[in-house]
Amino acid sequence: MADTTTTKTVEQPEKSNEELKEIATQVRRDIVRMVHAVNSGHPGGSLGCTDLFVALFFKVMKHHPEPFDMDGKDQDIFFLSNGHISATWYSVLARSGYFPISELSTFRKLNSRLQGHPTTHEGLPGIRVASGSLGQGLSVACGAAQAKKMNGDKQRVFVLMGDGELEEGQNWEAALYASHHKIDNLVAIVDRNGQQIDGSTDEIGGLGDVAEKFKAFGWHVIEGDGNHFEALIPLLENCVAATGKAKPVMFVMDTKMGFGVDFMMDGHKWHGVAPNDAQLATALDELKVGTEGDY
Amino acid sequence: MKDFPYTESKDTRSGFGAGLAELGASNPNVVALCADLTGSLKMDAFKKAFPERFFQVGIAEANMMGVAAGMTIGGKIPFTGTFANFSTGRVYDQIRQSIAYSGKNVKICASHAGLTLGEDGATHQILEDLGMMKMLPGMTVINPCDYNQTKAATIAIADHEGPVYLRFGRPVVPNFTPADQKFEIGKAWTLNEGTDVSIFATGHLVWKAVLAGKLLAEKGINAEIINIHTIKPLDAEAILASARKTGCVVTAEEHQMNGGLGDSIAQLLAREEPLPLEMVAVHDSFGESGTPDQLMEKYHLNEAAIVEAVEAVMKRRK
């Protein structure tokens, strides 16, 4: 099992799955409200990956929100390659203490640090590289992981990618590189929701068996459920436990696009479309937590 | 016209290799990445002395740029090495997003730039790289002229915080600048003071400008010759002072006219001091196979072309 002594959040007391679910529901409320407020953004993938973000930032990763350290010395660090699901990351960063929760109201607006896609350019704590143009995050994560090794830093690097973005060739350059250089302090996660803008990943890109592909590239591959903490937490602990064994680790994570909001689930329709007023009300009705937590 | 004696000719890429090896010894944060061109980039000495800080990336330049960006997170100063074509055109979006927009301290070191790559031909002879790189906000763009200057520039950019594009080349050229020079980013270097025309040259064209200066002196023309090793930030003060003194300008570079040094100086003059300008550069064309000297002659990037441009621009001088 995982060496959890080095992977627990230091700022947060141990959280139960029930507590994580409450946080995830709050994050989902943030996402639909943020996207609705500017009538733009990507709710589908954001909702589908909410449980992963909450699990990482509130349970699995060791990290220090304040003061933010770009180098992430002696911390687990996280990269988001599919930057379009920024709403989730912003909500989780704010709610884990990187910046004021009230700042979520500036999402995608002029002069905001919360750009449409994440960037270091406006100085938002928690972001270590810009992403949005797809396929670049895995390479950056490889470099950061190698820098950790050179520095004798025992913590790990996590990177989330969309499954559609695996159609970008750079990912496969990085997949070869990580395996060849035995970058074993790296946990990559693919959001295998099977959807991309123009349709399903099988219909558009013929993505096939992602797990087998990464195995063939020399990775240690773990597969499983990314939307239920009962399954997700042990899977992530298995990923962490698999680090340090001369292979990069890949978690092929099954999620549903739009998870948590019934009418946004399944299919690719809600990849990049914001809900209208009535749809927002329906979504918030479904996402029941103490509404006093809203930004 | 001043004399520029030199005892040997060397390739600028070897200056890079020597500078990188020195940096390896003096700065433990310097790391090097190469995309299967270690010998061509003269990175062997660094690789041999510091194997734990040398990363063979293979023929995967996009990944190399991303890995380099990632290594800065943790305080490393990555120097990437491949041909100029694969350092820029092939990986423009990786540089744009993961390095430039992200403000990462990566040094993009690019050999075999321009026509003087020679026989491999136009697929490898990039002539647009300065333009692409100078358009990126925050990118510093440097094109030194000989071995000594390339070595000094390589060492200097390690102390500059932020992304840098360092361009050098394959052929052996006169090594005429001092070995002990201090390289100042963004500081134009006046090689010869003159009164009749200002010649602003960069990279391999600096020596050609020196040769042109001698030919011009024989014709009674006293040319001011200035080495613009830094395309961005441009030393506007030095350029304007010289242009105002001489009243006409020639630029010279191994690059497309669009987007190169001449383009930057034309913009500056148009805004601040409209004066006659001629550009020695490639005119909207790809290169081809040939020896470096043959190509520089065919594409009018030699001392004869500079002399011709000087005579043309002086006729236009008010």
N- to C-terminal distance of chain A: 38 Å
> Which two chains have the most extensive interface, and how many residues on each?
A-B, 39 and 32 residues
Regarding quaternary structure, how should these chains be classified?
heterodimer
Low-confidence stretches of chain A: 1-9
Mean pLDDT over the full residue set of chain B? 98
Give the class of chain B from helix and strand content and strand pairing: alpha/beta
Residues in helices of chain B, as a percent range = 25-40%
Domain Transketolase-like pyrimidine-binding (chain B): 10-175
InterPro entries (chain B): PDH/Transketolase (IPR051157), THDP-binding (IPR029061), Transketo_C/PFOR_II (IPR009014), Transketolase-like_Pyr-bd (IPR005475), Transketolase_C (IPR033248)
Protein name (chain B): Transketolase family protein
Keywords (chain A): Thiamine pyrophosphate
How is the topology of this model organized?
The complex is a heterodimer of chains A (295) and B (318).
Chain A: H1 17-38, H2 43-48, H3 50-60, E1 77-80, H4 86-95, H5 137-150, E2 157-162, H6 170-180, E3 186-192, E4 195-196, E5 199-200, H7 201-205, H8 210-216, E6 220-225, H9 229-242, E7 249-254, H10 277-286
Parallel strand pairs in A: 1-2, 2-3, 3-7, 6-7
Antiparallel strand pairs in A: 4-5
Chain B: E1 9-11, H1 12-26, E2 30-34, H2 44-49, E3 54-56, H3 61-72, E4 77-83, H4 84-87, H5 92-101, E5 107-111, H6 129-134, E6 140-142, H7 147-157, E7 164-167, E8 172-174, E9 189-192, E10 197-201, H8 205-218, E11 223-227, E12 230-232, H9 236-246, E13 249-256, H10 261-272, E14 277-282, H11 292-298, H12 303-316
Parallel strand pairs in B: 2-3, 2-4, 4-5, 5-7, 6-7, 10-11, 10-13, 13-14
Antiparallel strand pairs in B: 1-8, 6-12, 9-11
Helix pairs in contact in B: 1-7, 3-5, 8-12
